[in-house]
Amino acid sequence: MNNIALFVKDFQKGTELSDRLATVNINITFAESIYDLPDQCQIGLIDLDDEKFGTVQFVSELNSQTKMTLLGYMEKVQKESRDKLKAAGCDMILPKASVVKNIQSLVKELLK
């Protein structure tokens, strides 16, 4: 079975995401650090508005030490921040409003 790690501290957003992901055949792990990951984790979903998770350093470390596809979301996607985070290894950055709505189709597409 496939695994997704959620780097999300917002309880409400985490609940919404896990509810939507429950319909997809995937194990969900709420992670606080790179050391909380299951062995074979394919996707990392990162709240880029979070002080800890939304840094270039965190994204870069996650990218260099794992083989995960990294999806990030933020309240308002700004070009400068987006460019830095993409350069650090975030594969896709979405607006916060669309991540819950589209998470099932995104995950299904990435796991093909």
Summed up, what is this model?
The chain has helices spanning 11-21, 56-65, 79-88, 96-110; strands spanning 2-7, 26-30, 43-47, 69-74, 92-95. It is of the alpha/beta class.
Q: Would you write up a description of this structure?
A:
The structure is a single chain. The protein has 112 residues and is α/β, with parallel strands linked by helices. It has a single domain (2-103), classed as 3-Layer(aba) Sandwich (Rossmann fold). The protein is 41% helix and 23% strand. The chain contains four helices and five strands; from the N terminus they run βαββαβαβα. Strands 2-1-3-4-5 form a five-stranded parallel beta sheet, with helices on both faces. Strand 1 (2-7), helix 1 (11-21) and strand 2 form a beta-alpha-beta unit. Helix 1 (11-21) packs parallel to helix 4 and helix 2 (56-65) packs parallel to helix 3. The two termini are 13 Å apart. The model has no long low-confidence stretch (mean pLDDT 93).
Please give the alpha-carbon distance between the first and last residues.
13 Å
Main pleated-sheet profile: 5 strands, parallel
Specify the overall morphology.
globular
Give the number of helices. 4
The CATH homologous superfamily is named Response regulator
CATH architecture: 3-Layer(aba) Sandwich
**Which regions contain 5 or more consecutive residues with pLDDT less than 50?**
none
